Every structure is written in C-alpha cells, then in structure tokens.
C-alpha cells in the first residue's frame, strides 16, 4: 500500500476496540501487513475487519482474512475461466496463468482431459504456495483476438473488482465500439473507486 493509504488504514485500526496504539503497534502493522499488500487488498481487509470483528485484529488475523477471502477461484472454476483458444479473452490470477502455461500444449493438441489434469495439478500447488507465502491474489488480463469477448471479459472483471476501472477503460476497444451501458458502468465504478480513495 502507498504511505498515505497505510496511514489511513492504521488510523481505522486504531479506532477499533483494543489497547492504545503505540508506535510499535503502527510499525508492526505497517511492516507485517500493509507494506506487503496492494491498496485494493488492504482496503478490503480493513473493511472486512471493521464489519466482522469486535476488537482490533492482530497482524496474523489480517493475513487470515486475506487467505479466507483471497478471491482465488476454486480449481474447477479456474479451469472453466481459462481461454481454450487464441480468440478468447480472460482475466486470471497469477496461479491460473502459470497453470494454463502447463496445460496449453495439451489444449492446442486437443486433449482437454489431460489439459485439465495438468492445469489442476499446477494450479492447486501454486495456490497452496501463494497462501503459505501470504501473497494476495493478483488479477491480470489475457486478451484474445475477438474484440467482443475482450469487452465482456474486461467489463466482468471491473464489475467484480478484479481490475481497476481506469485500467479497464484503457484496454477496451475505441469508445465508439463500446456500448453506452458499458461506458456508464465504468464511469460509475470509477466514481465509487474515487470515493473509497478519499
């Protein structure tokens, strides 16, 4: 998280029930958690803590929130999201990307049963390692040739909070090719994001 966002997050933690916050507590939260996550993840974890916990969480409890709701799809869901040809677009996690790399030669060969097995083996291992290392989920687009499919994938990711609306706006086809509903949705999501950042 950026220094300004870390300051806000620590202030919110300080407002929760618990012992008075000391400089040591601030450093512990900063070094142990907030400096290791993105602004989006940090804000989501703080909101979850405020909404569900009575007392100020420890650093370990913050990481537990990340792991319990880290946003990584279940293995079969992840496989269903992976593009099966070069026309399809998707927004995937780093673990999905690595697993798709192992499965891609089998997908190209047309052996989807073996491809699925290869994907699941790698995906489950990578998710386990990521959670053990307490790495937050990272979403990124993989764009295929079909512009309509690209728009659908990017818009869905924006709606789900997986990509920043401004990043999505830059990746979409020229504005004349994007429907009015899509533009309005992105503007609304961008406005909500701006409010959260204030």
Characterise the protein shown here.
The chain has 198 residues and is mainly alpha-helical. It has a domain at 3-68. 64% of the residues lie in helices and 4% in strands. It has 10 helices and 2 strands, in the order αααααβααβααα. It has helices at 3-14, 23-32, 39-52, 59-68, 75-81, 94-108, 112-132, 147-159, 165-171, 180-197, and strands at residues 90-93, 139-142. It has a two-stranded antiparallel ribbon. Helix 9 (165-171) packs antiparallel against helix 10 (180-197). The radius of gyration is 19 Å and the shape is flat. It starts with a helix and ends with a helix. The model has no long low-confidence stretch (mean pLDDT 86).
How would you summarize what this structure contains?
With 198 residues, the protein is mostly helical.
Largest sheet: 2 strands, antiparallel
Q: Tally the beta strands.
A: 2
Low-confidence segments: none
Give the integer mean of the pLDDT values: 86
What portion of residues is helical?
Answer: 55-70%
Broad shape: flat
Helix and strand composition category: mainly alpha
What amount of the residues lies in strands? under 5%
Rg over CA atoms, rounded to whole Å, is 19 Å
Give me the number of helical elements: 10
The main sheet orders its strands as 1-2
Run of helices and strands: HHHHHEHHEHHH
Q: What is the terminal-to-terminal distance?
A: 15 Å
């Amino acid at each position: 998280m950026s220094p300004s966002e870390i300051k806000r997050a620590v202030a919110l933690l300080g407002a929760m029930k618990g012992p008075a916050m000391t400089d040591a507590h601030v450093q512990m939260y900063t070094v142990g958690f907030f400096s290791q996550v993105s602004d989006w993840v940090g804000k989501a974890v703080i909101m979850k803590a405020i909404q569900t916990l009575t007392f100020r969480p420890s650093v370990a409890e913050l990481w537990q929130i990340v792991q319990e709701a880290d946003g990584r799809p279940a293995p079969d869901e992840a496989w269903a999201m992976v593009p099966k040809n070069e026309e399809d677009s998707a927004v995937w996690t780093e673990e999905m990307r690595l697993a798709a790399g192992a499965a891609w030669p089998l997908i190209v060969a047309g052996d989807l049963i073996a491809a699925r097995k290869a994907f699941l083996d790698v995906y489950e291992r990578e998710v386990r390692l990521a959670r053990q290392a307490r790495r937050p989920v990272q979403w990124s687009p993989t764009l295929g040739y079909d512009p309509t499919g690209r728009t659908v994938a990017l818009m869905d990711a924006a709606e789900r909070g997986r990509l920043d609306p401004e990043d999505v706006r830059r990746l979409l086809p020229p504005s004349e090719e994007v429907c009015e509903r899509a533009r309005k949705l992105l503007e609304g999501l961008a406005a909500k994001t701006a409010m959260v950042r204030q």
